[in-house]
Design goal:
Oligomer: single chain
Strand content: 35-45%
Largest sheet: 4 strands, antiparallel
Structural class: mainly beta
Radius of gyration: 13 Å
Helix content: under 10%
Shape: globular
Distance between the termini: 35 Å
Number of helices: 0
Order of helices and strands: EEEEEEEE
Number of strands: 8
Strand order of the largest sheet: 1-2-3-4
Length: about 110
């Protein structure tokens, strides 16, 4: 794991969580032109050296600068993002491959107090 796992704009590991025997890393990426946060998962259950990208580019929103929270709840991994313009995205997954990610909100649940 070196240089953002192939994406040098991923400048920090912001959150870590273990889910279904895999280590997940949420990154920070403030490059709004080609960036956005990534979620990585170790591809080799056990040694945690090789990681695969679950999503990049803020999972479709480059303004999602980093993964703010990773939390396991009721057999799902929840992924909360930080967006500099106030609204956050929240995703969840049971099978956390790209196709298994569910969008819970992209508007911060329309909270007027965000």
């Amino acid at each position: 794991f070196d240089g953002g796992n192939g994406n040098r704009d991923d400048s920090a590991a912001m959150k870590l969580a273990v889910f279904n025997e895999k280590l997940y890393i949420g990154t920070m990426n403030f490059n709004f032109f080609s960036g956005g946060a990534s979620l990585l998962a170790n591809a080799d259950k056990g040694n945690g050296i090789n990681f695969q990208t679950v999503f990049s580019g803020g999972n479709g929103n480059q303004l999602n600068a980093y993964v703010w929270a990773l939390q396991v709840y009721q057999d799902r991994l929840y992924i909360g993002t930080f967006n500099m313009f106030g609204e956050f995205d929240l995703f969840s997954c049971q099978d956390c491959d790209r196709k298994g990610i569910v969008v819970e909100t992209t508007t911060g649940f329309d909270n007027e107090y965000q």
